[in-house]
Amino acid sequence: MCVLGQRLLKDVDITDCHDDPNGPLFQLFCGGNNSQIEDCEPYFRTNNLTVVQGIKGLASGVFLDNIQNSFLELGQFIARTKDPDDIEPLDRPNYNQVLVDITTSFTILIGIFFPSVTGIMAGSNRSGDLADAQKSIPVGTICAILTTSTVYLSTVLLFAGTVDNLLLRDKFGQSIGGKLVVANIAWPNQWVILIGSFLSTLGAGLQSLTGAPRLLQAIAKDGIIPFLAPFAVSSRRGEPTRALVLTVLICQCGILLGNVDYLAPLLSMFFLMCYGFVNLACAVQTLLRTPNWRPRFKYYHWSLSFLGLSLCIAVMFMTSWYYALLAMGMAGCIYKYIEYRGAEKEWGDGIRGLALSAARYSLLRLEEGPPHTKNWRPQILILSKLTPDLVPKYRKMFAFAAQLKAGKGLTVCGAVIPGDFTRCSGEAMAAKQSLRRTMDEEKVKGFVDVLVARNITDGLNHLIQTSGLGGMKPNTVLLGWPYGWRQSEDEKTWQVFLQTVRNVSAARMALLVPKGINFFPDSSEKVFTRVLDTVVGNIDVWWIVHDGGLLMLLPFLLKQHRTWKNCKMRIFTVAQMEDNSIQMKKDLKMFLYHLRIEAEVEVVEMVDSDISAYTYERTLMMEQRNQMLRELRLNKKESLGVKIFEYEILSFSPSPSPTIVILASLSLKEGDGDDSSIHSETQQDEKSGDGNIQETLGQEEDLDADDNKLAFTP
């Protein structure tokens, strides 16, 4: 080789490697025949030209010189040292000095080298042609890896011990006339290497052209990627012709780049992602103890898979972080496309196994202690009534549950079919599908459960007791109002309702009874009215007893949904004439301020004659009212807690029509035992024609059922 100082020169005959004024190098660096030494390029003027042996042999000791790294950046000169005077062009002409054509680093070299060892999956791609794939693939793959690794690594060490540092970094052999270094070493002739390299490259290309099209055709036949369906067609001889044509076109695009070094890192990314996902799948299946995961390779351990995954990710980002992010982004897009558009196959996936394990872990964590009041939210159990056609009678209950949940928390829809399960199992499946369809149409996120019982009352009781799992059990029951109970001759219409109320109370669950559910708004509607070009909508809360905040929480949750978002919240509380209404209103406003709830407060003063004896006895005694006011003052700066409440009424005013919807919550008071009193001050009579609802107060009636006395006011 001809070396100028520390720099390597190209396209120079060894006999011309001198600084004679008549020589070609002097004329090149100095500008012509009549030039003087002072006119020459500064580096040429201050350094000597020498002839260096490029291939020195193992006994030369050049191995120690090649141990250190000599990475350079694009456009720098190939030189023995990293002195800036030797490697930097300094805005001078390059002449015939050898330049670095690509920025080099250890990670770049990994990306360039890695495609040469990507035949690990070759056996798997041909598993259909093997007599005993599960025996041949592990043995063949391991032997191939050991063989190629030995050859590659020994070649690297031998080159480092025989070839000069400058010649090793001359990628295209420009300093020795464009020849391959290994061809100069070959025995007996350089054509051995040239022909061998050509055949090796051709073999690797044919291997890819035979394996890749079949793999592409198999993916297309499975239908997991719909837009690949045209490539599932085979020729008359069973060859994947269309997939082969696509593979050739992809290869040609890579060749047209003109520099394989730019393509190699990107190819390495996809191979590394493939190997990484294989390792991840093996490790996840082992940790989840999937029953159908039974590897026969006795030396396998899940830690090896995680080690392989870690190395794949590390090499990806070491090679090129932006290529790594690009490859991950493309893989994520393909995965989401398959998830939404791809066909479902029988082999399943590891993501579902992870979800099951995560659900189990979360349920066990929820069992460690009772939920904090700050994390409390209504987990709703919808008790749906079915028509003879096994469809929900009141679809608006699903819409109301969706509005109340705003897509969060647990929702379970339950229904009861009277009869024997062995005879009604088909009806139960049909009812479950109908309820699931209704929940999907109303955009309710949750689960469906249909129970077959000998009677409706027992079935509802079983649903209340057994619905949910662990810490994800419902804490709120949504129950329909028994319309037409006064006109019905069948006493079951109100007995089922009252017994369900008892069961919910015994289970210490909140009970929501939407009255006039058919007048509730759909999830696609917005509740407001126009008064003098002003949008007005109100949610009225009649706050009778300080319950811990459930009545405040319900309208707040409703306002999270777009249907009720523009409504204003109004709080009405009842006071006797002798109460301090001004102070009561002031304390209630301060209470709402600390709860960070915006609402208007109104205090309604009533005389004793306007209040029934039951309500007076249960909620409006002066001592209890004063106690409530004291609690408000004491709890101004405390967090809101939710607890069992006695009696509450929530009134919605969704439209300017005289429709009034009542939502009542009832539960047993501690210490009442089996005797419970249930009282409602409102009644809804459905009129044919205009559909208006009139609220009337009636006389109390005593109803005896199962030796439990209930005071029920229609």
UniProtKB/TrEMBL annotation:
Task: Please tell me one Gene Ontology term that the record gives under cellular component.
Answer: plasma membrane
- The ranges of region (Disordered) come to 670-714
Keyword Transmembrane applies = yes
Q: Which GO terms describe its molecular function?
A: potassium:chloride symporter activity
Parts forming coiled coils: none
* One GO biological process term: cell volume homeostasis
Report domain SLC12A transporter C-terminal positions: 399-513, 537-615
* Residues of the Amino acid permease/ SLC12A domain: 103-381
TM stretches of this protein: 98-117, 137-161, 266-288, 300-324
Q: How does it sit in the membrane?
A: Multi-pass membrane protein
Intracellular or extracellular location(s): Membrane
Indicate, by first and last residue, each region the UniProt record lists as having compositional bias (Basic and acidic residues): 676-689
Source organism superkingdom: Eukaryota
- Keywords in alphabetical order, please: Membrane, Transmembrane, Transmembrane helix
Which Gene3D superfamilies does the record match to this protein? Amino acid/polyamine transporter I
Name of the protein described by the UniProt record: Solute carrier family 12 member 6
Which organism's genome codes for this protein? Timema bartmani
